[in-house]
Amino acid sequence: MRKDAARNWQHIVDTARRFVDDGESLRLNDVARAASIGVATVYRHFPTPEALLETIARPGLEELVVRADRAAADDAWEAFAGFLLAGIDAQLRDASIQPVFAATTHALPETTELVTRLTTATGHLLDRAQAAGVVSPGVTHADVVRLMCGVVFAATVHATPDERAPLTRRYLDVVLTGIRTAGPGRITA
Fold this sequence. Notes:
Helix content: over 70%
Distance between the termini: 46 Å
Radius of gyration: 19 Å
């Protein structure tokens, strides 16, 4: 990429990041106007708003993949609970992650790969926790994904920005307590 093209690309991404952080809709024409860059230039780099959103979410998704890979070496419960905590923290820090992760299709092949890796890692961590007897065998991968979305949604809708992180951790603790099997030495996340 030429230097001016790379500079434009980065400026578009930075401008779009502000839109996402401010909770505004990501419309390419609006991003172009705010970035003082021609609409055709924005569309040349990002043919759809989804491609731009996925580009913004990519670093956070990559960080979660690394976290999932590291978690595989931990105790089964700590790996599972720690990864879920990292996932909700990432969603609170970066508003682009949740809609990209929840989308049924993706504009960019690398996004599909990252989301597939995260989905697979979550499934492996759940399977491992269930095999260790620390998570109820009736809990499915779909349950975990929906519960994590619910935890973040509840803390986002019913709290001020300063309350979100502590409330999300509290709600996650309630969920983890609910899916953890009973037994001696039971601990909560």
